[in-house]
Amino acid sequence: MIRTSRWIVPALWLTGLCLGGCGGATPILGGGVSDEALRHRVRAVITAAVQHDQAAIRCNALESLVLLDEVTAAPLVREHLREPAAAVRFAAAVALGDLRDGRARAMLEQRLSDSDDSVRLAVGYALEKLGDRRFVHWYDRALFGPDARLASQACVLLGKLGNSSLRQNSQAKLWKVLRKEGQDPIVRLQAAEALARLGDQRVTKKLMAYAGSGYADDRLIAISGLALLGGENARAMLTVLAEDSQLEVRLAAVGALGTDSDERERDMVRQAVRYVAPDGDPQATARVRGLALMALGQIGQENDGVLICRALEDDNPYVRVAAARGGIDFLERQASASARAAL
Predict the structure, then answer these.
(1) What is the pTM of this model?
(2) Which pLDDT belongs to residue 229?
(3) CB 13 within 8 A of CB 287
């Protein structure tokens, strides 16, 4: 059963031919795909998606743009602080914080009076990442208030801010949110994932329990938290979830296992890249393909570059952005492997 949250910025949980552009200079990733050409196509897909007419696509593209780690990323992100869609302004502010874009400081200051509460939360995040210390209690009202959407977003941002001299009590606040009587389930899940991001091993049991939820999206968030924590217990649960009855959960779990996945699991991911829902539902098809492509970025071997390249030409924009996200991880892993081999 799927229960997709409506409250946080859409995440990339969510067969096409390679129309040229994926061949080219060496070194070759496999199947005639070069690393330079794949990187070029990934960047082109993300850059196009940032201007897509669907706000959710723009949000996902902004998150992925940060991972390209290029000097050209920040100017592309800044213009989206003025977007009509609040979700895109939220994503842009978070991205600018992650990029630590000092040139955006004045624009961010203006957005402290944004009409949308969630955007103001994200602007505080961005300014704190730039060294501003005004926001120690910035998230408290959202964390403990009645709005589950804002509480979820505040949990996510606290987790991303990490442990610092300014954030010594973040874990205590998140535990209070998680244990709040009558708390909304999605807020509990986001608080648990944020605690995992902060390295709090005490949340392992909670995540293990959430991994047994009847809702697939709950299990997906649990997988994210378990992957962040690592360790034998987390790995054991991820191995169990790699056999889940829901394909989406299996894909996420295998991706989280990374190099601990086996060849049978890798083959399952490769097949899911070409998945078509039995009833032809395009959203279900895109969701599975997107998860498969992101998993492939974490576990794919040299010859799998061609699968990612082909997916970058998929008709569905979600699939294209997910392929780009997987491509970034894939290229990073290939570069690391080459560096190790050169030692």
Answers:
(1) 0.90
(2) 95
(3) yes
CA gap 132, 134 in Å, rounded = 6
**Residue 254 is encoded by which pair of tokens?**
């295998």
Q: Residue 33 belongs to what H/E stretch? A: strand 33-34
For residue 142, give the nearest of 112, 109, 118, 170 by alpha carbon. 118
Orientation of helix 263-272 relative to helix 282-299, angle to 10°: 140
Tell me the one-letter amino acid at 206: K
Residue-wise pLDDT for 132-166, tens only, equals: 999 999 999 999 999 999 999 999 999 999 999 99
Residue found by looking up tokens 């957005």 in the block: 111
d(C-alpha 155, C-alpha 220), whole Å: 17
In this prediction, residue 71 carries a pLDDT of 82
Lookup: tokens for 208: 């293990």
Q: 110 and 28 in contact (C-beta within 8 Å)?
A: no
Q: Are 251 and 289 in contact (CB under 8 A)?
A: no
Cβ burial of 339 (10 Å; 0-12, 13-18, 19+) is exposed
Q: Report CA 223 to chain centroid distance, whole Å.
A: 12
By C-alpha distance, which of 132, 179, 186 is closest to 154? 186
Cα separation, 256 vs 294, in Å, equals: 10
Distance CA 218, CA 212 (A): 9
Q: What is the pLDDT of residues 262-277, one digit of tens each?
A: 999 999 999 999 999 9
What distance in Å separates the CA atoms of residue 167 and residue 269, rounded to the nearest whole number? Answer: 39
Residue 34's φ and ψ, nearest 5 degrees, are -90, 155
Quick: pLDDT tens for 83-103: 999 999 999 999 999 999 999
275-306, pLDDT tens digit by residue?
999 999 999 999 999 999 999 999 999 889 99
Query: Which residues face 30 on adjacent strands?
Result: 33
- Find out whether 207 and 198 touch, Cβ atoms under 8 Å: no
| Three-state secondary structure call for residue 161 | helix
Q: Alpha-carbon torsion 29, 30, 32, 33, what sign?
A: negative
Task: Write out the two tokens for 316.
Answer: 């569905």
In this prediction, residue 30 carries a pLDDT of: 47
Q: Burial, 146: exposed, middle or buried (Cβ in 10 Å; 0-12, 13-18, 19+)?
A: exposed
